Every structure is written in structure tokens, then in C-alpha cells.
Amino acid sequence: MKEKYYAQDISQIEKELNTSLDNGLTDDEAKKRLATEGPNSLASKKKRSMFMRFIDQFKDFMIIVLIVAAVLSGVVANEWTDAAIIMIVVLLNAILGVIQEARSEAAIDALKEMSTPNAHVRRGGAILEIPSTDIVPGDVVLLEAGDVVPADMRLAKTASLKVEESALTGESVPVEKDSDILKADDVALGDRVNMAYANTNVTYGRAEGIVVGTGMKTEVGKIATMLNNADETATPLKENLNQLGKTLTIMILAICVIVFVVGMFTKQGSEPTNKLIIDMFLVAVSLAVAAIPEGLPAIVTIILALGTQTMAKHKAIVRKLPAVETLGATDIICSDKTGTLTQNQMTVEKVYYDGELHNDEETVNVDNPAMMAMILANDTKIEDGGRLLGDPTETALIQYAFDQNIKVEDLLKKNSRVQEVPFDSERKLMSTVNHYGDKFFVAVKGAPDELLKRVTKIEKNGQVTPISDSEKENILASNKNMAEQALRVLGLAYKFVDKAYDDPTTNNVEQDLIFAGLVGMIDPERPEAKSAGIRTVMITGDHQITAAAIASRLGILEENSDKNKAVITGAELDKLSDDYFNKHVQDYSVYARVSPENKVRIVKAWQANNKIVAMTGDGVNDAPSLKQADIGIGMGITGTEVSKGAADMVLADDNFATIVEAIKQGRKVFANIQKAILYLMSCNVGEVLTVFMMTMLGWDILMPVQLLWINLVTDTLPAIALGVEPVEPGIMKNKPRGRKSNFFSGGVARSIIYQGILEGILVLGAYQFGLHVGPHVGNAAMQHADALTMAFLTLGLIQLFHAFNSKFIHKSIFRVQTFENKWFIGAILISALVMAAVEIPFLTKIFDVTELDGMQWLVVIVAGLLMIIIVEIVKFFERRTARK
Predict the structure, then answer these.
(1) d(Cα 508, Cα 91) in Å, to the nearest integer?
(2) Per-residue model confidence as pLDDT tens digits over 747-798
(3) 514 sits in which H/E element
């Protein structure tokens, strides 16, 4: 097996890549390699044409059913209006699908745009500036602060180099780099300190290195490959709609065949055979059209679109419509720590001085030497308006001084810098020499253990005394204590000198120091991240101890949990087989030092356990897992364009609490779609059973035009109005419904069946009453016409009354919330007026109905009210049984 570049000596790499650190490649050799290796850019998979994407949208089972229904409505039943409405809905869905698919490719495009346009290379001994796309393996690249690393490099020479890699590794603090060989077998990406990776940023120092990977062979290229190869996960909504379509089709075809066959037998001889075949075929087709909830895709689209608008008001921008509903089903939130669970902003939390540990809220004296050291030994630039530019660790120190009401700019002017010893990754210290009246103040900050080697005295309460071994032990114990709380600790020291140094080196400046204190910083957790109620799994590029400490603060790890088992590193994860990990994924709550491949594997393991997974993230390294997850959530402020392009939803405020609100809206969307389905399906079952029983009993049956009119009036406005129902109280107290649930879960299937049967019985009862009441008693033909009219109007009116039942699947409708939705009340009133309009004299002939008298209307209204009363009684006993 070939040795990794980070484990090789520079001379080995020069030999392997046939290059020279001093001279680089020749122009001719670079051109040959460019022809062989290809440009240093990212490739994407071949895009499907817009037309083919459009055709793909019609492969959905429910869509095929609807197209068949449209054709039957137009050609057979001559209902071209219905056919046109169905086709418009189908086309709109297809157009939306194409738009969403095009948006999902934005991740790769954004990844390409991140590449730096130019880079400095050494070729033929001369330093040239060339387009980064022309860089090839073996090129010697020169880096300095402000550069974007153009390709994957093995560093050969470094001078205080720091590289910000959070987009690639999740590490929240710039990484100190050097050129030393790493001899471990498998070093995590974030620990490869002698490597610099494409698309990361140099924040400090300089370096030279040899390019070992370009284009798709870089670490960011691997991410692009993962994005290209990521499976498109079917959303729960799509799975549910497909299941619904298949169930409906089988049920409808079976009933239509039975109605046709039974009708042919029971009505044989009543009219010519040819006419009977056509009539029964029309009834069967009308029944099929009536039974298919053709308005459902439109209603689902409207509900989802309204959900996206509501979420946008709460700072959650939904890029793909089905994501709205998926959120409500989420079982697991896999969250990147940096910038998501934490604020991605280093903050001072503890300060140790005068032998004691102090919280950041405590007031510190401006003349405290610890404060002086942290302000003066600092390269932060303060812009007009107070904006701080520089290393996050150093800006955190200046912000702390501002928070202490210290006039930092005045202090820096008064104690201006004269000399400095820049930070060096070997000694891990930086020092400055500053004016201080007629003397000079030497300020030193750095790693506590390195600093203590140079300390001879200590200040406590204004008194400087020689430092004892016990005092050093106390300082190191405080340092360890803060580190275990996930704090990044810096030591602070100082001394006074009479004049500036002739030779300001570490051997002169950083000796015989007075210890001033320690400062502990952290990327603080977001307080709102503790309140999601759904299991949160932390995935981070940070070290294991840091990750465990943050997770404990967030409540992801319980105080008494075995952290050795609950926290796992990427290297440890790589050693686990897929089979073992899939079975034991629930044992782990925190993943540290992970790679992009690890993140995808974690998401897939939860999905293998039938969990619906949301993944949050802001870096390039998060993009593949964002795309793999059932719902990817990107960060709008701190997120890279790559992560936003791969996400289904983007948080405009980067606030974890926004996810909780979005989940609430997602649950509302699912609940409202479920209510619409309960309403539509129970009504359709009622219609089918009514016609089926009338046919079986040899009674007069409802005309195709009557069935289609009921469908048009009752299936549109009321169902859409159910889609805009407000959030039910206590919806966030429910457990996540998960992947196994569907639209028929939670008693909905049972409700559809019994409510459909009840509707059919009430309509048949109204028909029977119609044979014995009204002005035409004794006139058999007119009496049958009245009875059929009563059955027709009862069926329509019952469905409008039943819309109230559907507002709450199990709760009683006798509550204030029932009348909160003004759109719903308006929809019912309009539909009722349109339904009753068939009794207008000039419309009675069109719909083949008679004009009813008061007694007949009373029967119709009572039947409608009975629908509410009986369903309420059933709900009462359901609730009582559930409580037991």
C-alpha cells in the first residue's frame, strides 16, 4: 500500500513527483502534466436536458392515475372542464419538479466558484502568477496570509502558518501548520498539520509546498464526487402519495368492475342491452372519477406552498417543497457543531488571575497586567464602527476588553508597539514590546505549558514574588480544568524593561517573565439548541474532549452517561463494519474529528434504521451529508454557497430555534394534508358505497353529472380550506411519527372506512325517507325522482358537514379553535350555496332533480347533522379507550 503524503519526507515526494522544491517544474513538463491530468477544476456529472427532466416528472404513479382519470372524464363522460383542471394540476407539478431539480445542482456550481483564480508557483526557478486551473501535481506553490490554497499540498517550508479549514473539516479555529512528517497510520483530515488543502484560507504566516492533488483528486474534489453520486432520497411525502395512488387504483378498479357487472345483471331487460352497456359503463367511469381525489395533488401543492411562506416568515427558506412536510416527520437531527449548535465565534468565558478563576461577567481593572497582555500582544485590527478583523482567538480577547468597558483604541495608542516576536508554531508564543511611560512593557501570550518554562515570577493582588512549584502546579491544574470544559486556554505574562531590545528574539524578550494569568475561550453553544425535543446527534471536526464538553453543555450527553461509549472519533468509526455500525448507531450521540465520508455514513446508518434524518451544516464538508439526508438544512449567514446549494432548507438567521419552529410548521403541514385526505377519501368512499349499494339493491342510481357535480363542489374549496388550518395546540408534544407512518396512520384509515360507510347509510336512509314524504306521495315515478334528488342533496350536504368532523381526527369539534379558520367557514358557505343552487328552476333540468318541499329539506338537513353527531359519539369513545 502506497504511503500517504503526510507520512513521507519531502525528498521522497520530490522523487515520486519528479520535481524540485528549489526549481519546481519546467514549463514543458507542466504542459505535459496538464494534458495528462486535466485542469485543476471540479467536474460535474452530465446534466440531463430540460425536456428529459420534464418527462421524468410523469413517471410518478399518482400522476399516471390522474392522467387516466382526465382522459376518461373528457372522452367518456364528456366532462372536459374536469379533464382540463386535472391536466393543469399535473403540468404545474411537473414544472415545479423541474425547477427544484435544477436548484439542487447549485451545490456543484457553487463548489466550482470557490476555486481561487490565480496562484503563485515556482517554475524553472522563477516565481510566476498563473491561473489556478493550470496547476499540476509536482508544482511548487507559495502561500501567504490572505491566499486561498489552490490545490492539495504537502508543506515543505512554513513560517508561523495558520490555515482556516472550518469549511472542510469543521474545525472552528485556524490550524497551526508545520512541515514535520506524521508517522501515524491513519491521521484524521483535521490533524494533518503538514498538509494544506484546496479551497481553505491562509490566515497567518507563509509557506511553500508541493502540489500532490488537483481537480477531482483533491479532498474537495472527493466531496464533489460524493455530491455527484449522492442518491436522491425519496421524501416521506412522495412515498406516501405513491402508496396512496396504488391503493386507490386497485380499490377503484375493483369497485368499478363490480358495479358494472352487478348493474348489468340487476337491470337486464329494463332497457336495450347496447344502451345498458353504455349507461353502466358511464356510471362505472363516473364512479371512478368520483372516487379518485384528483384535487389532492393540487391541494398538497397549495398546502406545501403556504407552508413555505409561513416558514419564510420564521427565517426558514425552503428550497424544495416536499421538505416542508419532511421536517414534521424528522426523528433525528444530525448537526454540525461549528456555527450550528455553536455560534462560530470564539468568546472569552473564564479568566484566571490573582490565583483565582473568574467568570467573564466579573469586572476587571484596566491596569490588570493580564488585561494589558491580552490587548497588547494581539494583532487584531479594529475598523471604524468597532468591527474586529483577525484571528478569531485574538478578536475574542479584544471583544472581551470592549465588554469590560476598556477603551482599547486609547490603550493601544498610549502603549504603542515598538518591537515584536511573531508567533511561531514551535515555541507557541508571541510577544510585543510597547511604550509604557518612560519604560517598556513586554506582553507575552501563548500555550500555558510553554509560557511557564519562561516564567520566574508571579503577580498576585499587585505584589510580584518569585513563583513556586506549587503555584505552577495550581496554574497547570486550572489550565487542565478549563481544557476539560472545552475551553481553549492561553497563558499571559509580562515584564518591564528600561529600553527596547537591540536584538528582539525569543532568547532575549521571552525570558524572566512575570506570570499574569490564563484566559479560557470557547465557541459557545447556542442556548436555543437545547430545546428541540427531537434526538440531536453532534457531528464535528473538533477534538473528542471539546466535542464531549460542548455536548454535555447542550444536554446531548447526559451527566451520568459513559462518554467513552457515547463519543466516537472518525478514525474509530472507520474501523467499524457497516453491519455493526447500523445495529449500534443509536449508542453514539457525538462524533468527533470526522471526515465528509463519515458524515454521509452516519446519516445512512440512521436511515437504515428507518429513521427520518435532518442534517444541518454550513461547510463544504457538510454538503454530501446534507444531500444524503432526508432533509438538508444549510446556514444562510455563515454557510458556504456549496452547503446552501446542497440543502433543502436554508436558515436565514442560522438559529437552531428556527429548526424547531420549522418542524412545528412541518407537522402542521402533514396534519393538514392528513385532514384533507381523511375528508376527501371518506367522502369518496361514501359516494362509491352509495352507488354500489343502490346498484346491488336495484334502486335508481345517481346520474354521472350529479356525481361529478358533488365532486366539483365538495372536493375543492373545503379540502383546500382544511389545508390552511392553524397549528393544533400541543403538536410539539407528540413523538416524531417517523418513516413507517403514512397518511392512513393514527386511526385515519379506520376513520375513512367507518365515516364513508356512515355517509353511505345516511344517504340511503334519506332516499328511503324520500319514498314516503313530500308532495308526490302516491305518484311512484315522481316519488322516486324526489327520493333520488334527496339522496343527491344529502350526499352533497353531508360532505360539507363532514368537513367540520375532519378538522380534528380524534378531538371534539365543539371547541373555540373550530371556528378560528375564516377561510374554512367561507369555503363551506360558498360550497353550500353552490350545492343548493341545483334547486333553482332552470338548473333542475340540467341536473335532473325535482324541487323539494320543507319536509324533504328537513330530512336532508337532519341527515347532514347526524353525520356530525354520530362521528362525535365515536370520537368520544375512541378518546375514552385511548385514555384507558
Answers:
(1) 78
(2) 888 999 999 999 999 999 999 998 888 787 777 888 888 999 999 999 999 9
(3) strand 513-522
Neighbours of 419 (CB within 10 A): 15
Residue 294: count of CB within 10 angstroms of its CB: 24
Strand ranges inside 658-785, DSSP E: none
Per-residue pLDDT for 435 more than 90? yes
Per the CB < 8 A criterion, the answer to whether 129 and 178 are in contact is no
Distance CA 627, CA 623 (A): 6
Tell me the C-alpha distance between 366 and 346, whole Å.
22
Q: What is the pTM of this model?
A: 0.66
Reported as type and span, the H/E element at residue 614 is strand 613-617
Nearest C-alpha neighbor of 617 from the set 170, 310, 149? 170
Q: Supply the mean pLDDT for the chain.
A: 83
User: What confidence score (pLDDT) does residue 765 get?
Assistant: 93
Distance (Å, rounded) from C-alpha 436 to C-alpha 418? 11
Cell numbers 473568574: residue? 358
For residue 75, give every residue at least 6 positions away whose Cβ sits within 8 Å of its Cβ, in sequence order, or none: none
**Contact in structure between 585 and 565 (CB atoms under 8 Å):** no
Report the run of H or E that residue 154 belongs to, with start and end: strand 152-164
**498 is an active site residue:** no
CA distance 657 to 644: 18
* CA 37 to each of CA 135, 212, 262: distance values in angstroms, whole numbers, following the listed order: 10, 12, 73
DSSP helix/strand/coil, 670: helix
Give the separation between CA 300 and CA 298, rounded to whole angstroms.
Answer: 5
pLDDT of residue 358 exceeding 70, the answer is: yes
Rounded Cα–Cα distance for residues 70 and 593 (Å): 55
Phi first, then psi: what are they for 631, rounded to 5°? -145, 120
Which residues have CB under 8 Å from 678's CB, separation 6+? 748, 751, 752, 755, 806, 809
Task: Report the chain's terminal Cα–Cα distance, integer Å.
Answer: 65
Nearest to 834 by CA among 699, 666, 717, 681: 717
Judge whether 633 and 659 are in contact, CB under 8 Å.
yes
Q: What is the pLDDT of residue 345?
A: 77
Cα R_g (the chain), whole angstroms: 36
Residue 521: phi and psi, rounded to 5, are -120, 155
> pLDDT band at residue 233, thresholds of 50, 70 and 90?
low
Of 331, 343, 739, residue with least CA distance to 532:
331
| Per-residue confidence band for 111, with pLDDT thresholds at 50, 70 and 90 | very low
Confidence check: pLDDT of 104 > 50: no
Q: Is 657 helix (H, G, I), strand (E, B) or coil?
A: helix
Dist CA 356 CA 372 (whole Å): 18
Identify whether the C-beta of residue 323 lies closer than 8 Å to the C-beta of residue 531. no
- SS3 of 837, please? helix
Instruction: For Cα atoms 535, 538, 542, give the angle at the middle one, nearest 5 degrees.
Output: 170
Q: Which residue has the cell 382522459?
A: 71
Residue 825 neighbours by CB under 8 Å, 6+ apart: 819
Contacts of 719 (CB under 8 A, 6+ apart): 295, 296, 299, 676, 679, 680, 803
For residues 660-671, give the mean pLDDT. 84
- Amino acid identity, residue 50? M
Q: Check whether 456 has a pLDDT greater than 80.
A: yes
C-alpha cell read off for 240: 406516501
Q: Which helix (H) or strand (E) holds 537?
A: strand 535-539
**Which pLDDT value is given to residue 89?**
59
* Residues of the chain above pLDDT 90, percent: 31
Catalytic site residue from 147, 336, 630, 786: 336
CA 793 to chain centroid: 47
Count of all residues that appear for the chain in the document: 884
- 158's CB contacts (< 8 A; 6+ apart) are 177, 178, 179, 205, 206, 207, 425
